[in-house]
Amino acid sequence: MTDRTPTQPGSTAQPRRIVTVGIIGAGTMGGGIAMNFANAGLKVTLVEAASDALDRGLAVVRRNYENSARKGRITPEQVEERMALIRPSLSYDDLADVDLVIEAVFENMEVKQQIFARLDRVCKPGAILATNTSTLDIDTIAAATERPEDVVGMHFFSPANVMKLLENVRGEKTSAEVRASVMAIAPVIGKVAVMVGNGYGFVGNRMLHKRGAEAVALVNEGASPQQVDQVLTGLGYPMGQFAMSDLAGIDVGYRIREERRKSGEDVPASWLDKLAENGRLGQKTGAGVYRYEEGSRTPVPDPQVDQLIADFRREQGITPREISDQEILERCMYVMINEGAKILEEGIADRPADIDTVWIYGYGFPKDLGGPMTWADSIGLKTILETITRFHDTRGGEQWRPAPLLAQLAQEGRGFVDH
Length: 419
Description:
Blueprint: E1 20-24, H1 28-39, E2 43-47, H2 51-70, H3 76-85, E3 86-89, E4 100-103, H4 109-122, E5 128-131, H5 138-142, E6 151-156, E7 165-170, H6 176-188, E8 192-197, H7 204-221, H8 225-235, H9 241-248, H10 250-262, H11 271-277, H12 303-316, H13 325-346, H14 352-363, H15 372-379, H16 381-395, H17 404-411
Helix pairs in contact: 1-2, 2-3, 7-13, 8-13, 9-10, 13-16, 16-17
């Protein structure tokens, strides 16, 4: 299969042949990932710890396929063909001969290390061991094995059977052959792949978390979630920050913040934490930042959330103020541009175009604006630098410290396209 697919430009390493795939975890992500490979005609072994979780996961996959058949996208025969390619299992031993295994469990380093230590014992030599982590350190996961050169990140985006981006993450010891392999498999399963470096949140989520923190701060200060979202959709995003949180699941961000707190980071309290603790986990529970009518994905502003936010402001001693749409746009977007410049400086992304690709295919950045770094060039880096400098002077915070690359390009009258 992948041995006939070209690797990334400039790569001379030959990809390994991938015809059988194992996936750990039959939840939303695992099931969606399994569909990608079954759609391409590859055999998939889907492993879960408990039979009820496995049955639930397979039922969701079948329902997704049957929905596609009802819409005429595939035939009923194809539904059965694809389901037949997905072999359910409760045993890691069934992964002994797979060419690629992808771990897709929740974001917990200890759990992932246990899984990779087990895969190291079970999988054949030369098998690629991939993690679908969206934020955690690839090298720490790889250290649980005796073969870190075979470990790589394959970050799929939710819903994994729909979203086009595959953010592949190279660890310090990931071999060139493994890097070539995960880039080569992407077009086979209908994905657009970008290879990025290891570091918290990689490219997409690192920038998203900066935007998310700014969006939450704006609400703390007086904006409403719907005002923030309307500014972003007004720019051309299909959905705003908070509607996206509801789609992904409020518990996902909550778990990530809890992991960071456990590691000793100073992660401030948030009204989003209160939503998670109250069981408002987003679309899947019918209520998150917004509420959702039965069978609808349309976000509806909820007075209960307005009250929860007002109570949070009171507890924190915050007097709300009126915030303009322009301030929301600048704070949400320019913080991303500044972080993108830092990502380029650090070599986490090789090119500005890679950042643009991540954001267009993984986060719905409006295609006609060319991606965040291209959009920044169209605004003018001098204008962006002046605004970021003003925010740093008035607000402080590391996120507003101008990236040296941004400052250099702005002072030279150049754009990211020249980097």
